[in-house]
Amino acid sequence: MIVSSYYLSYFVDIEQLSISQICQTLNDIGIEVEGCHRLQIPKNVVVGKVVEKTPHPNANKLNICQVDIGEKTLQIVCGAKNVAKDQFVALALEGAKIPSKNDNEAFFAIKQSTLRGVQSCGMICSATELGLSVVNEGIMVLDSSMGELVLGKELSDYSFFNQYLIEVSLTPNRGDCLCVLGIARELACVHNLMLKTPKEREYGIALGIGRAINLSAECHLKSKLLYKVVQIDSVENALQEQIMLSYNGLLSDNALENHKRFAMYMSGVIFDIYPIPEHTQTPTALKVRQDEQGFECVFDTQGNKLCVIGVKNYAPALESYPSLAIIQASFVPPEVLAKALFQHHIEQDPITTYRSVRGSNTELLMGISLLCELLNTYTQCSIYSGFQELDMAEESERCLITMDFHAISQAIGKDVQKEEIARVLKQLDFHIEASGDGAFLHITPPPYRHDIASVQDITEEFLRIYGIKNIPSLPYKSEQKLNVTDTLLAYQHKRDIAKRAITLGFYETIHYVFYQRSKLLEWGYQVLESTLDLQNPITSELDTLRTSLIPALFESASRNHNLGFKSIRLFEIGSVYDAKRQERKELGIIVSGLKTKEAYPYPKGEKWDFYSFAKEVSAIVGDFTLVKTPTPPKNAHPHICADIMQNGKAVGIIAKLHPSFEKTLELEDAFYAQIHTLQASTRAHPKPYPKLHANIRDITIIIDKCTPFHAIQEAIEALEVEDLEAIYPLDVYEDTQFALTIRLVFRAQEKSLTEEELASRIQLVLAHLEQQFGAKLKG
Description:
- This protein is an alpha+beta fold.
- It is built from 18 helices and 40 strands.
- Strands 27, 30, 31, 32, 33, 34, 35 and 36 form an eight-stranded mixed sheet that branches. Strands 3, 4, 5, 6, 11 and 12 form a six-stranded antiparallel sheet that branches. Strands 14-17-18-19-20 form a five-stranded mixed sheet.
- α4 (239-247) packs across α5 (255-267), α12 (486-503) packs antiparallel against α15 and α17 packs across α18 (755-773).
- The model has no long low-confidence stretch (mean pLDDT 90).
């Protein structure tokens, strides 16, 4: 919403406040100022009066106007359709600099010119040509709303054209500030200023409202209604109203509707206008009852629905004059209306409904008095004396909040005197009564604050005005014990894995947990059961939860390859799901292209191979052994694939990407590791640092070529040979027989091992291998 300093002064005297103070105050109390700019007309734009208008002899769409500016009359060529004799207009004189429509220029200088052979000594301006919001399709016509129109007077000397426009953003609960009065009320409260509101007036008409309308309610009302009757002879727009309505997106083509909307913009009260048809017998009867959907509506004598209160006006617009009109001010509890509109989708007027459901002003008499004041000023009308109202038949008691004086001090962390609390709340228009012993406050919020319902709300309101900057900043005192949990250890373990991968030159990636079901099937992965799949996917490409990290990682690798990257290393630690939609954490590692970029001693770069990739994976996840995969997955090379074993359990798979997938993705030498069981991290226990050297012994055995090394390693470890520290394969030989060289590393903590002790340990290993696998020591 956009409010102006000019109209704020209608309700509160802000002359002593600078615009920066106003903006700062609004920000401090929770009304966010999104922008503020000065509305100022350029110099050398003056009030003129069109005293003569004649058609241009050489152009059908142009007119030659004689414009009086007091000291002289100037000839102006004008192409606006709405220019007419006796109009007061904004005339830009020679030398005036008006905003340019050309983005490359800030201003456009007015000069004498000749248009189709006729001299023009200035320009009659539209609102947009002066940097204002659009009010019509032609020139801007000045009227009495500006004050006394003095020919030749600079427009910038008029108060309205020398003010500030403030754009504010409101939270949904502050419907009371969706009007100028609401903002003015907040400023008056903070700066202890007097709030001025219009009072009911009599306009010298002897006829009372009872002669024109007769009201009745046929239900227990939840709404509040107030009525006035006006005999309108003619209606004219007010330029000031048009400009402000235009800035707020409320401008209408109907002059009476503009007066109504402006009164709503100023006061926050919801209005409806019903014309009383000519020759209708008065007093006309208005009946309020619920319709078939439970909305409270106003009906005329013939049973025609005139409006759904707070939602939409169905009465025809009043466009012909003279005419008798009924003005209705209304209030509907926002929570009641919002629930009804949620249950029943009915036709709505967006402007009315938006204000009603956020909470309109309950001060109906004040609002209707303001509208009558506008009509009396800018229209030819007769306002009937008195008013009629229909109040809530079973109006619930206003919210009463009882609280301890010390509750606010405890909540904000500072001792505040109860007199200070009472002062601020009274400034906010809260009704306060103290208990007999003075220990408690009984607080009733003002009727327009529908959002105040608890002690916490009261505390927030006090703090808003008191100022959070007046609350001292204190350190939070607490004692946190060291709390090492399984969750913390698991998190640390995952980040340790990520750090090791990054150290080795891998890039961490993050993909959506959503993926395309058809692609998962294409890659050979399981998918969610259909009953557990997404019912309302974001897009057709993200219609299920991912069951593997690998497809998305390789898609990212393909994109990077297409961008010219020859060496790609990616990893991701993220959530995947099984067919039952059970979540688990998984690690995916992929490489593609070159292991080593083109540089000496590899001028063409060094390509990845299975074992060099396995070595990188081992450096990331820790030591493991490889076991041949019984059934390689669809996406893996059938002959370059193995299960990753840790602590005797299969924790993942490592493989070269299947050639068909490499071709589809346009990748070369692509490998991946998929770790589906991340070993939990445990607390590290210190081990004694070895004081003695290691004893290394190599043995070469004749063994069946098809015997996997992991089986040999497990068999040796099962012996639990004393002082045996490590076992790993060293070399293979194949002639008429297959020979495997195994390196055994022995290390004792307290003494050096003798050759006899080493020989006995090696003999124990050889005997066991012969028994298990038929292996023999190569002679």
